[in-house]
Design a protein that fits this description.
heterodimer; A: 139 residues; alpha+beta; Thiol Ester Dehydrase, Chain A; 5-stranded antiparallel sheet; 5 strands; 32% strand; elongated; B: 168 residues; 4 helices; 21% helix
């Protein structure tokens, strides 16, 4: 995990992309069980239809969790200082999510060299689903 | 004391809980749950599912994934239910038919390990409206605290209701 030379990282560097999905109903059921988030809008189509929705939709936090992996598989979870994202649009069943991260800033804080990365998740049709940023310690 | 949240005639949230804190409840961090969560997210770093690999990397046990916070929160909600206390979404009077997640942010202070007991607490910070009252939002802050190691993770979250059209 630590074989990447983090110190050589420069602004503009893109991390290796990660794809997830297509997101199946099984994945949503498993995420509901694993996370403990049993909101029926994600797992019960009868509930969704009654609420006027065309179908169940994915937990935002499922994509969020996958998006963190783009950063943590590169730097290691122990170097992550901050991770935040806005849920820009709803992730639908069958969406294939691509997660990307780009270094946008190098700075020093709390005695550490750190980088800030822009993180984004997009569906197969280019629709942005999550957008945010992460802070990683380099040393 | 904080000032009262502005009202929205179409609003669903109970805005009287602005500034309220849901007191800390204990949550056990279990190996199997860390593993299951990591597996669903497709984690490839064995520190999340292989105890020996986690120890070889210098950790006392499995390390929770970076969004494991949600698991702790759900477990805290269950613990509150057992104690006859309302969970966050009940306190806010959320309606799942219209509820969406606006944003989520974590500040990491230290890892969360299997075998630990942590305390989970949440403060309801503020309510506000957008799109001329068609959308109402609430911001919350939570903490995961270890009795000896202190603050492990802090969170900020926005939840929202896409409000239904008022009935004619």
């Amino acid at each position: 995990m630590d074989k990447i030379n983090l110190k050589a990282v420069e602004v503009g560097a893109a991390l290796p992309e990660l794809t997830f999905g297509p997101i199946s109903r099984k994945t949503l059921a498993l995420y509901a069980g694993a996370s403990g988030d049993h909101n029926p809008a994600h797992i019960d189509i009868d509930f969704a239809k009654k609420a006027g929705l065309p179908d169940v939709f994915a937990h935002g936090m499922l994509s969020f969790g996958v998006l963190t992996r783009v950063v943590t598989r590169w730097a290691g979870a122990g170097r992550l200082r901050e991770f935040g994202a806005r849920f820009v649009s709803i992730t639908q069943v069958h969406d294939l999510i691509t997660c990307k991260a780009t270094v946008i800033e190098k700075f020093e804080a709390d005695g550490e060299q750190r980088v800030r990365l822009a993180v984004v998740a997009t569906a197969q049709d280019g629709r942005e689903t999550l957008s945010g940023d992460a802070v990683v310690a380099l040393n | 004391m904080t000032s009262a949240a502005p009202s929205n005639p179409r609003g669903i949230f109970d805005r009287s809980v602005k500034g309220a804190t849901l007191e800390p409840v204990p949550v056990q961090i279990e190996r199997g749950v860390i593993r299951f969560f990591a597996q669903v997210l497709g984690e490839t770093d064995p520190i999340h599912f292989d105890v020996e690999a986690a120890r070889a990397a210098g950790h006392p046990d499995l390390v929770a994934s970076s969004s494991f916070f949600v698991v702790i929160e759900a477990a805290a909600d269950e613990e509150r239910k057992r104690r006859g206390q309302p969970a966050l979404l009940d306190t806010l009077k959320c309606d799942f038919r219209y509820l969406l997640h606006g944003d989520e942010r974590y500040f990491y202070e230290a890892p969360i390990y299997a075998g630990e007991e942590v305390a989970f607490s949440t403060t309801i910070v503020d309510f506000y409206d957008k799109k001329g009252g068609a959308m109402e939002l609430v911001t919350c802050e939570s903490k995961v605290v270890h009795p000896k190691r202190g603050l492990l993770v802090r969170s900020q979250r926005t939840l929202l209701h896409r409000l239904p059209e008022p009935k004619g």
